[in-house]
Design a protein that fits this description.
Layout lengths: L3 E2 L10 H10 L11 H14 L5 E5 L2 H12 L4 E6 L3 H4 L4 H4 L4 E4 L1 E2 L2 E2 L1 H9 L8 E8 L10 H13 L3 E5 L3 H6 L10 H4 L2 E5 L9 E5 L8 H7 L8 H10 L4 H22 L3 E2 L7 E2 L1 E4 H10 E2 L1 E7 L2 E7 L6 H13 L1
Parallel strand pairs: 1-14, 3-4, 3-7, 7-8, 8-9
Antiparallel strand pairs: 2-10, 5-6, 9-10, 11-13, 12-16, 13-16, 15-16
Helix pairs in contact: 1-11, 2-11, 12-14
This protein binds pyridoxal-5'-phosphate.
The site of pyridoxal-5'-phosphate (PLP) has 9 residues, from α3.
Length: 342
């Protein structure tokens, strides 16, 4: 028997309501490549949620694909993108951005978050045509460390980007978890004003797969479908992703699932804090990073699955615990009970 795992928020399949809709619509004939009725419906529902009747929305299968297509569509050959040291495009995407010819400039960050000062530091080092020209800023919300951006932080970043002719792009692989975080004062609809492009992550919030890219900045919209097609990402059966977003944006499912994942992580974090554990980051979403004494780590690893994240010192390790839309509360309670006995 496999150990129960807190590895990822994509360890389970899909929420039953998504599967039901796929099943219900399975026999219908549809036009291909995103011109189907489910894509139209998903776009209508997301536009309603955004409060933007003409929002430009495109569906792709995964986060790396979204990041690559968006950034490759924005950057000219000499242009670069600024990201945090922990930014997903920098650490976990096999050089996808570099492979299409763009440097990633690393800016100082705290808890996975970029600040205007960090961005300015990079800009100040790139002054002329002997260097790459930063043209985009990549942020993730939630970040790779489970933290979230406040509205003011996003406003400040956006203001800087506007004044320095930079495109602000938000990777929303865990956008649901970010928006449902108690530390967030950002609403989904705010993102139309706060960033130039973002995506709404489905894969890590109850879908089988799929991300919905939203392009706010009108100048970035033209020919985007060509970019999708050229990267091999335009699905003949576009209905597959669209149906999932229809289900996610019906009756609040998207937010209910994210809320559950966050609540399970918060319960774990609270329980761990009461056992006097410290944390590697100030996460308020569904990824938490407790620091365990190595003896405890090894005992817990013999009972549960989760990843080690960073060595803190000779006797302590930060681990990554991830909850999902499907994490049963009983598993959380068991984990805490086992931890307190260890
Ligand atoms: C913040 C973030 N962006 C992008 C991705 C990449 O997603 P995918 O594995 O679907 O390409 C991930 C995956 O873990 C992620 O955490």
């Amino acid at each position: 028997m496999l150990k129960y795992g807190f590895y990822n928020d994509y360890s389970e399949g899909a929420h039953p309501r998504i599967l039901e809709l796929l099943q219900q619509t399975n026999g219908n004939q549809e036009i291909g490549y995103g011109d189907d009725r489910l894509s139209a419906r998903a776009t209508e529902l997301i536009r309603q949620a955004l409060g933007q009747p003409d929002a430009d929305i495109h569906y792709v299968t995964g986060g790396t694909q979204a990041n690559l297509i968006v950034l490759a569509s924005i950057l000219r050959s000499h242009e670069s993108v600024i990201a945090a040291q922990t930014g997903h495009i920098h650490v976990h995407e096999a050089g996808a951005i570099e492979a299409v010819g763009h440097r990633i400039n690393i800016a100082p960050s705290v808890d996975g978050k970029l600040s205007p000062e960090g961005v300015i530091e990079v800009l100040d080092q790139h002054t002329d045509e002997h260097m790459v020209k930063p043209r985009a800023v990549f942020i993730s919300n939630a970040t790779e460390l489970g933290t979230v951006y406040t509205k003011l932080e996003l406003e400040n970043l956006h203001e800087l980007c506007r004044s320095r002719n930079l495109v602000l792009y938000m990777d929303g692989a865990r956008l649901g978890a970010a928006l449902c975080s108690p530390a967030s004062d950002v609403k989904l609809s705010d993102l139309c004003e706060l960033v130039d492009v973002f995506y709404i992550g489905g894969t890590k919030n109850g879908a089988l797969l799929g991300e919905a890219i939203v392009i706010n900045h009108h100048d970035l919209r033209s020919d985007f479908r060509y970019h999708i097609k050229q990267r091999g990402a335009m699905l003949a059966k576009g209905r597959l992703i669209a149906a999932q977003f229809v289900a996610l944006f019906t009756d609040n499912l998207f937010f209910d699932l994210a809320q559950h994942a966050d609540a399970m992580a918060a319960k774990l974090q609270h329980g761990m804090a009461s056992l006097d554990l410290r944390f590697f980051s100030n996460s308020t979403t569904n990824l938490i990073f407790p620091i365990l004494p190595n003896q405890v780590l090894h005992k817990m690893l013999s009972m549960y699955g989760f990843y080690e994240y960073a060595r803190i010192d000779a006797s302590h390790t930060a681990v990554r615990i991830v909850t999902s839309w499907a994490t049963p509360e009983a598993r959380v309670d068991e984990f805490l009970a086992d931890l307190s006995r260890t």
